[in-house]
Amino acid sequence: MNLRIVACLLLALSATRAAAADLSGTWRIDVPRRGGVTLHTYFVLRQHGAELDGKVVIHGGVDLPLRKAHLEGADGVFGTDWNTDYRLHPDGDRLRVTISYSGHGSEEATAVRVPEAEANPPPVIPLPALEPVPANGLAPTPPMGWNSWNHFGDRVDDQIVRETADALVRTGLAAAGYVYVNIDDTWEGARDAQGNIVPNTKFPDMKALADYVHQRGLKLGIYSSPGPKTCGGYEGSYGHEEQDAQTFAGWGIDYLKYDWCSAGRLYPDSALPAGYQKMGRALARSGRPIVYSLCEYGMGDVWKWGPQVGGNLWRTTGDIQDNWASMSEIGFNQSRLAPYAGPGHWNDPDMLEVGNGGMTTTEYRTHFSLWCLLAAPLMAGNDLRTMSAETLAILSNREVIALDQDVLGRQGERLSSRDAIEIWTKPLHDGGRAIGVFNRNDTAKAVQLAWKELGRSAPPKTLRDLWQHRDLPVAADGWSGTILAHDVLLLRVQ
Ligand code: GLA
Questions:
Q1: I need a surface site. Which of 88, 165, 355, 383 has the fewest CB within 10 A?
Q2: Ligand 1: distance of its center to the CA of 104 in Å?
Q3: Atom of ligand 1 lying closest to residue 315 CA
Q4: 319 annotated active-site
Q5: Residue-wise pLDDT tens digits, 1-14
Q6: DSSP alpha helix (H) spans, 106-254
């Protein structure tokens, strides 16, 4: 046989092999997680020749369309969406999958075929009509404490929470006002035969943990979702709202962060208020005072209806990241929401990144100053057990915390912005004001601040620098000086 014919035959054969591996159908991979939990990701695939389309259902939470999916040669398939790439390698009746998270490593898994219905969300439970939930009287000033997510992610466990409670007391942060010790996602196990949510093995006894935290004069917070799955793919409160509120109250929980996530697979955005009201009402009926933190990333103008559904605070943005771009983008964008904050109901620009390592000490000082001017909830997001003296000094600056916790409860606003120098101001209960002069430039800037720019005809009586902890001389016309790159001058004027 002529060589060319052999080559053609081989090519034809491999093409037949590629075509034979029809990947159409529903595939499931099991992803083991800490705490003895197994999460599932589904690939719902349709193959047309060498092209694939379909979707990925991540941990039952989000549906992502598969993009750019095609067979590579006889046995390689490539699908991508968001920041995650899936490489699918047919292997007999299985599918080997390499999942690469851009910049965050990769995982290997094997997918098996399952009935299509397994990947579907559960039936939609109709939501109750809107009817205001009475205010719970909690959070007269923005809640302060710690949350596990920013630093620990899915590593949080009973021991870390106990050690963090100890650290709050030891470092003086508890005395400075940080009282909530909040467990974020990944504590959840399965439900028992009666439908009660049971923590996974990272949290052997939630009630005992609450007792430990309470004995130190602190409060314990927890996390769930109105959807069937949390953002991390763990068990949510869907269809178990009343039962979970009772369970949380029984454990001694004092704070609930409730994260929309997979509820978005079942309900349109217009259902957000009713979805949140359902748990708001359940918490009100639980017989225990529980701060209610809405986490739906600012969708549907949550600040307009958050208080009516029983919310004490609501996230106004997507997730913060531990870098200057993310923090400043979020923080400097909050001015227009000032009218919606007040005692008992606060805008939440997300938890603090102070001390997590991705910003300079100067930038963390700016982060903290801005959050305090915003009357934002102050949830430390770092490892309090091992933080540096600089980090502790920022988090525990009582003169700055006093701005955040001022009983007037007014959120600060931007007064002006010129050449990336922003002046923010926050009225205080004693008639004084906080002034933040921020330099968003990457270089130091000479700044002149005229009293009349602050709306004053005369110089203030006193001018207190809240980071230097000293009164500055008051000049007749204003303040002038240099502000370093990404730094802030934070003043209290009387
Ligand atoms: C979402 C929230 C985060 C965190 C994670 C946990 O992304 O916005 O704050 O709670 O879920 O999975």
A1: 383
A2: 17
A3: 8
A4: yes
A5: 454 544 443 444 34
A6: 149-152, 158-170, 206-215, 241-251
